[in-house]
């Protein structure tokens, strides 16, 4: 599975007969590992708002709609930042952009402990954390994959996407335990701040922008190393130009529409409102957060598996299957919520976990197929639609709970949207794709 590079011999050193030269993994795998770790941390930061809805409501008396609005700002900026961040990475380098983004997250998370008004929640957690985490969104994963890999792109995309699930798996139980044990949400916010600052040295020391920076070719590429391209000025203009060009195709709008439904049915609904919805039925917060963490476990399996499938099967049909199954599961969820964790709920969690972000590898593959060298930026715009959809449902879910005293209407509505997304995926036409690289 790993392409290897040979360590050159020192002058005058002779190889002993029958002994092969020392072999080591391609540097691309180290870069992918650092990227995975960074995305994992970013997902951990994003997992906190769902745990804060009830504590903030109880401490400050803010409505769930108001808190949901701050979460929606976070989710929307997370998506809208992604295409500009991808262009900035071409201009200033990946390391610089990601290091600054982590610092912004640390500032936003740290300042929340001093807030006393809703506008401060919107500024700190909505704007600052939203902007910072958006720079480390899945467009970051697409950028690294496009630059460092020719072979195994689908699989690597799946692994990096699974970083989001890993962050949820690691941080959700920890943060929920802190909130419940300390009877205070502030220590949990400080954990996020410290974690963001901790990862900065790893990014600066280990991450590299291009294979040519270390004298290598991309994993699976033939020929000599490709020289590092000159920095592209006008990052904002390039991001907008890519959007204008892509928006002239129906494929872009279909991908954006399906991914908006993806965000609405995952980050906007389940990640934000599952814990308070389960708590409404008498389930302890730690138990509900633990179920979301289990989703993270199976999300890793499902996303990596989806990457493997994307290397081998039609991405459009994969998307249709994923959305159809997700819609059916959401329609059933209101019947499963109870004061304790029972076997049908466990089945839902496993099933939903396998499908959580399985849509990402085929969506990135279709962007690459249709939009070529601008595919990472175009995917950033598609991701923006994902987060706008998530933000709208995060806000609408809180408003629905305030108005009707239940989340049932939102679950059913999201299930219907997933059915529409399945049909939209089947309408996407084939692009001028290059044949997938052979597996090495």
What does this structure look like?
By secondary structure, the chain is mainly α. It has 16 helices and 2 strands. The chain has helices at 27-46, 49-60, 64-92, 94-111, 118-134, 138-148, 153-182, 186-206, 235-246, 250-280, 285-310, 315-332, 343-355, 360-371, 375-404, 408-427, and strands at residues 4-6, 23-25. The protein has a two-stranded antiparallel sheet.
- Total strands: 2
Distance between the termini: 6 Å
The helix-and-strand class reads: mainly alpha
Main pleated sheet: 2 strands, antiparallel
Work out the strand percent.
under 5%
Instruction: Please report the number of helical segments.
Output: 16
Strand order of the largest sheet: 1-2
Low-pLDDT stretches are: 1-21, 433-440
Spatial shape: globular
Arithmetic mean of pLDDT: 79
The ordered string of helix (H) and strand (E) elements is: EEHHHHHHHHHHHHHHHH
Rg, nearest Å: 22 Å
């Amino acid at each position: 599975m790993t392409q290897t590079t040979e360590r050159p011999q020192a002058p005058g050193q002779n190889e002993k007969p029958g002994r092969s030269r020392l072999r080591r993994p391609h540097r691309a795998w180290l870069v992918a590992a650092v990227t995975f770790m960074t995305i994992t941390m970013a997902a951990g930061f994003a997992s906190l708002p769902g745990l804060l809805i009830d504590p903030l409501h109880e401490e400050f008396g803010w409505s769930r709609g108001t808190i949901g609005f701050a979460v929606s700002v976070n989710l929307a900026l997370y998506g809208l930042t992604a295409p500009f961040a991808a262009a900035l990475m071409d201009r200033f380098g990946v390391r610089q952009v990601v290091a600054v983004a982590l610092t912004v997250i640390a500032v936003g998370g740290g300042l929340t402990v001093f807030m006393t008004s809703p506008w401060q929640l919107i500024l700190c957690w909505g704007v600052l954390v939203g902007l910072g985490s958006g720079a480390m969104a899945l467009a970051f994963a697409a950028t690294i994959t496009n630059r460092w890999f020719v072979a195994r792109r689908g699989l690597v995309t799946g692994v990096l996407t699974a970083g989001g699930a890993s962050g949820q798996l690691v941080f959700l139980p920890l943060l929920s335990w802190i909130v419940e044990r300390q009877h205070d949400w502030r220590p949990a916010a400080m954990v996020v701040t410290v974690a963001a600052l901790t990862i900065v040295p790893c990014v600066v020391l280990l991450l590299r922008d291009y294979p040519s920076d270390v004298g290598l070719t991309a994993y699976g590429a033939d020929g000599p190393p490709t020289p590092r391209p000159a920095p592209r000025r006008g990052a904002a203009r390039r991001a907008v130009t890519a959007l204008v060009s892509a928006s002239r195709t129906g494929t872009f709008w279909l991908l954006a529409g399906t991914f908006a439904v993806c965000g609405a049915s995952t980050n906007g609904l389940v990640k934000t409102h599952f814990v308070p919805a389960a708590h409404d039925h008498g389930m302890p917060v730690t138990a509900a957060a633990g179920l979301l963490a289990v989703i993270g476990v199976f999300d890793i399996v499902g996303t990596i598996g989806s990457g493997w499938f994307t290397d081998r099967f039609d991405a459009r049909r994969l998307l249709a299957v994923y959305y159809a199954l997700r819609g059916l599961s959401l329609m059933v969820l209101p019947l499963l919520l109870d004061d304790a964790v029972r076997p049908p709920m466990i089945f839902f969690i496993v099933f939903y976990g396998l499908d959580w972000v399985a849509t990402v590898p085929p969506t990135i593959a279709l962007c690459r197929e249709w939009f070529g060298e601008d595919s990472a930026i175009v995917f950033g715009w598609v991701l923006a639609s994902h987060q706008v959809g998530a933000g709208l449902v995060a806000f609408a879910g809180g408003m629905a709970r305030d108005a009707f005293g239940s989340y049932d209407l939102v679950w059913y509505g999201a299930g219907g949207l997933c059915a529409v997304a399945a049909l939209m995926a089947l309408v996407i036409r084939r692009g001028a794709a290059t044949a997938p690289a052979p597996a090495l």
